[in-house]
Every structure is written in structure tokens, then in C-alpha cells.
Write a structure and sequence with these properties.
Structural class of chain B: alpha+beta
Strand order of the largest sheet of chain B: 1-3-2-8-10-9-16-17-13-11-12
Number of helices of chain B: 14
Strand content of chain B: 15-25%
CATH superfamily of the largest domain in chain B: Amidase signature (AS) domain
Number of helices of chain A: 3
Largest sheet of chain B: 11 strands, mixed
Largest sheet of chain A: none
Oligomer: heterodimer
Structural class of chain A: mainly alpha
Largest interface: A-B, 31 and 32 residues
Shape of chain A: elongated
Number of domains of chain B: 2
CATH class of the largest domain in chain B: Alpha Beta
Helix content of chain B: 25-40%
Chain lengths: 57, 440
């Protein structure tokens, strides 16, 4: 389950490396906080099952 | 205070008022007011004077100067203006070369006779609702300088509300025209996605960015729409219109002022039908995910090179957005397609939807939380509660103020089916009249 602190930090590490983004130390804490907020804001979408027929149109 | 769009154009076209005089008046009001409000980032005075003389020469020669003849307007600082660096509220772009031609929307308005007088302040890259810009300053609400004008087109809302210009171009991705319109007591219009050419503007999230504008009345924004689209006005009485009154999410979590505005507007429609907009929380989440992902992808090189140049208020949204899983973005795009279809089905039963615009009056700068129905919510993510969910559907929307319900302005949204701008404007014009009558 994404959402705990360690998971968020691993998310930052892995995804930043994948897009070749070097997030400097002073920015890491606010980015982790923003990741946590993003997850909360996007959660209703992740939990929503798009009706299959419509989603596959 | 300047005249409205319609009367300026009518008088200039008729030779009763010189465009040059209108522009001098606008420049004078900008000079007097902008220090306190900070709506303008650039004033293009010489260009405006030159253009006004051209308009006057056309009138003197008996030629048609266009339906917006002599109307001063300004553009959010993400539209290219020839000879000016397009900064989009950011230091990231400040070292760029000046634009070599105007954005398409500016060219279209000038072809119709309007006169550009400058560029307007905004949130960095149009990413936020407050226009509290770390680089170019905060844009204050002309109704109360301690409060935000809204955003991201905050300069557009404030410039019109303060009477500096009667018309201002903006963009709307999640509510960036509608929120300033609501907070500043002016009228905002966002046409159907793709109906206004976006060439020559700095995008935020291309699959949701709309070009639109703000004016002081529905007639003014309608005149701009007619000039840009060539569509004719239609007449519609409120008694002929079936309005959809949204239940659930869109009737919850708003301050008493927002609720009073919605009730007052709703009461003007004799034919109402309750509708439920499906999956509003997921719709808002999808709009957020699309914005976050697309905005960060566009700025990825800048984030790699110089993250410190970003406004601290947007920097971490951009950085975190660059880390969003592709699967989330894809799901958001799938949802967007499904949701658009669901909304279009609602219009089989109603002509327009009536929704709240902002859930609150303009907050004070620095205000972090707001109390609604005994609960405390963070201000920044709450502002877009009613504008963001419907943004990704790309529908035409007019946001107009409801007078007399609170000490500060607040608006409501009228939403139509795709390409029904003329109907939405006709209903908005009648609603505006009915609300003014109800207040008197």
C-alpha cells in the first residue's frame, strides 16, 4: 500500500531516477509531502471502476 | 471607470467616441489603480495608441473597424505579445527571447477592432487559484485588497473588476477563469474545449486548457464570443429553459454565501430538474491527475535544469507531478472520456446545469483554512471543488455573479452541452437580468 513514509520516499527515489530528475536534499521533504497530497487527491480515481464498455470505447 | 464593451464599440463605430480617447482613459485608469492591485505585468501603451489611431482612421474613412472597435483589452501573461517576453508568471521563461508575433486569440480580438493594452499577472504557469506570485507579486481583489483576486487568471479578473479594461483574455484548465470571476464579481466565459485557437500561448495541461475571457457583464462576454465565433445571439426566456439543479457533491461543502448565491440563482428558473453528476470525486481526481502529469511533462527539462527558479508555491507540485505513474494518467484519460459521455447524457433532460462556482468568498492572503459546516478544510485545494470536476469534460461554461448575497462577490456556473455557447450566454443574460431585478 502506497502511502506510508518509507513507501513515499521509495516512490520519489525510483520515479525520479526513471525520469532523470535529481531532487536536491532541501526539496525532498516538500516533494514527499506533495506526493502524499497527490495520492490523497487522486485516490477517488484509483478507487473508481470505470464501466468496462465505456472505458474501452 | 471605463464604459462597457458594447457601448464603447457602438460609439467608436459611430464616430461619437475616438478610440484614441478610450485608450488614453484606459491607460490613465491602469496608471492610477495598478499600483495597489498589481493586475498588469506589462503595459503596451505605445502599441495601443498606434492601434487606436488606426481604428479612428478606419472610422474616418467610412470603413468597418470591427464589432469590438476601440475596446481596450489585456491578456493573461501566457499569451504571446509581439515584442514582449511571455513570462507566464515564471522566472523560468524570463530569459527567453521576446515573442515575434501575437497569440492567435489576441490577433482574433484585434481583427475585431479591440485594442491590446498589456499583459496580466497570473499564477506561475497558470498552476493555482490564488495569484500570489513569488516573482511578480500578488494580485489583490479590487473589492478588498487584503484578499486574493483568485487565479490563475487573477490579473484578468482584477483588471476588469477595477475598471482598468472592460475585457481580459484568460485561460481555464481547472477553473482559472471561473474562480477569479466569482471572487471579483465579474463574468467569465470558457467556450467548448478547442473552439478558440490556442496557438501562441504557454500551455499548462494541453488536454484541458481552454482560452476564454472575463468581462463586466454577460453582454460584454457575449459580444466577444460573437466577434470571435461569428455566431449570432439567440433569445431565450428563463421560462423556456429546463435547468439542471445538481444534487449531492455539488450541493454540499460550501459556505452560507455560496449556498445563498446558488439558491438565489436557482429560484429564478421556473423549470428545474434535480440531476446527479456521476462520480464527482473521481472526476475531480482525474482532472487533477491529468493537470499534474501534463504540466510536469511540459516542464521536465526546466525541472532538471533549474528547479530553484520555480515559485515555491508551484515547484513541488511540478516536481511531484513528474513522478506520477503513467497508469494513473492513463486511467484519468479513460475516465475523462467516460465522464464526458455521462455529462452529455444529462443534457437529454435539461438545457443547462446550474452549479456553484467557488465554495467560498475570496480568502485573505495567507489564510490557510476555512470553516464550512463545522469542519475545517485547507483553503487552496478547496477553492476548485466545484470548477475542477467538470473541467476535463470541455463543456462551455459562463460564470456570473449573484449580487446582494454577501459583502463580497460570489458567482455561479451555467454549464451547457458541447458547442452550445449561444444558448448558455442567452440563459446567462436572462439570469443576470432576473437577479438584478430580484435585488432591486
Amino acid at each position: 500500500m502506497i502511502g506510508d513514509r518509507q513507501q513515499l520516499e521509495r516512490w520519489l527515489e525510483g520515479a525520479a531516477a526513471a525520469v532523470n530528475l535529481d531532487i536536491a536534499a532541501p526539496h525532498r521533504e516538500p516533494v514527499v509531502a506533495q506526493l502524499e497530497l497527490n495520492l490523497a487527491l487522486i485516490r477517488p480515481l484509483l478507487d473508481f471502476d470505470i464501466p468496462a464498455t465505456d472505458a474501452s470505447e | 471607470m471605463l464604459h462597457d464593451v458594447s457601448s464603447i464599440a457602438e460609439q467608436v463605430r459611430g464616430g461619437d467616441l475616438a478610440a484614441a480617447d478610450v485608450i488614453e482613459r484606459a491607460l490613465s485608469v491602469i496608471s492610477t489603480q495598478n499600483g495597489a492591485i498589481n493586475a498588469f505585468t506589462t503595459v503596451t501603451a505605445e502599441r495601443a495608441r498606434r492601434r487606436a489611431r488606426e481604428i479612428d482612421a478606419l472610422v474616418a474613412a467610412g470603413k468597418d473597424p470591427g464589432p469590438l472597435a476601440g475596446v481596450p483589452f489585456a491578456a493573461k501573461d501566457l499569451f504571446d505579445i509581439a515584442g514582449v517576453v511571455t513570462i507566464a508568471g515564471s522566472r523560468v521563461l524570463a530569459a527567453n527571447a521576446a515573442a515575434d508575433r501575437d497569440a492567435a486569440a489576441i490577433r482574433a480580438l484585434e481583427r475585431a477592432g479591440a485594442v491590446l493594452v498589456g499583459a496580466l499577472n497570473m499564477e506561475e504557469f497558470a498552476y493555482g487559484f490564488l495569484t500570489d506570485n513569488a516573482h511578480y507579486g500578488r494580485t489583490c481583489n479590487p473589492h478588498d485588497l487584503t484578499r486574493t483576486a483568485g487565479g490563475s487568471s487573477g490579473g484578468s479578473g482584477a483588471a476588469v473588476a477595477a475598471g482598468m479594461v472592460p475585457l481580459a483574455l484568460g485561460t481555464d484548465t481547472n477553473g482559472s477563469i471561473r474562480i477569479p470571476a466569482s471572487f471579483c464579481g465579474v463574468v467569465g466565459m470558457k467556450p467548448t474545449f478547442g473552439r478558440v485557437d490556442r496557438a501562441g500561448m504557454v500551455p499548462l495541461a494541453p488536454s484541458q486548457d481552454h482560452v476564454g475571457w472575463i468581462g463586466s457583464s454577460v453582454s460584454d462576454v457575449a459580444l466577444a464570443w460573437r466577434a470571435l465565433s461569428g455566431e449570432a445571439d439567440i433569445g431565450k426566456q428563463l421560462s423556456e429553459v429546463v435547468v439542471g439543479e445538481a444534487t449531492g457533491y455539488f450541493a454540499e461543502r460550501m459556505t452560507p454565501a455560496a449556498r445563498a448565491a446558488l439558491s438565489a440563482a436557482c429560484a429564478q428558473f421556473p423549470r428545474r430538474r434535480a440531476v446527479e453528476i456521476p462520480a464527482p470525486d473521481a472526476a475531480r481526481a482525474a482532472a487533477y491527475a491529468i493537470t499534474s502529469s501534463e504540466a510536469s511533462a511540459l516542464r521536465l527539462d526546466d525541472l532538471r535544469r533549474s528547479p530553484d527558479l520555480f515559485d515555491p508555491a508551484t515547484r513541488y507540485r511540478f516536481l511531484a507531478g513528474a513522478l506520477l505513474p503513467a497508469a494513473w494518467y492513463i486511467k484519468a484519460k479513460q475516465f475523462q472520456r467516460w465522464f464526458r459521455g455521462q455529462l452529455e447524457r444529462l443534457f437529454e433532460d435539461v438545457d443547462v446545469l446550474l452549479l456553484p462556482a467557488s465554495p467560498m468568498l475570496a480568502p485573505r492572503f495567507g489564510e490557510e483554512t476555512i470553516e464550512i459546516d463545522g469542519h475545517t478544510y485547507p483553503v487552496r485545494p478547496t477553492i476548485g471543488r466545484f470548477t475542477q470536476p467538470i473541467s476535463s469534460a470541455g463543456l462551455p461554461i459562463v460564470c456570473l455573479p449573484v449580487p446582494g448575497v454577501a459583502a463580497l462577490p460570489i458567482g455561479v456556473q451555467l454549464v451547457g452541452r458541447p458547442n452550445s455557447e449561444s444558448l448558455v450566454l442567452a440563459v446567462a443574460r436572462q439570469l443576470e437580468r432576473a437577479l438584478a431585478g430580484a435585488q432591486a
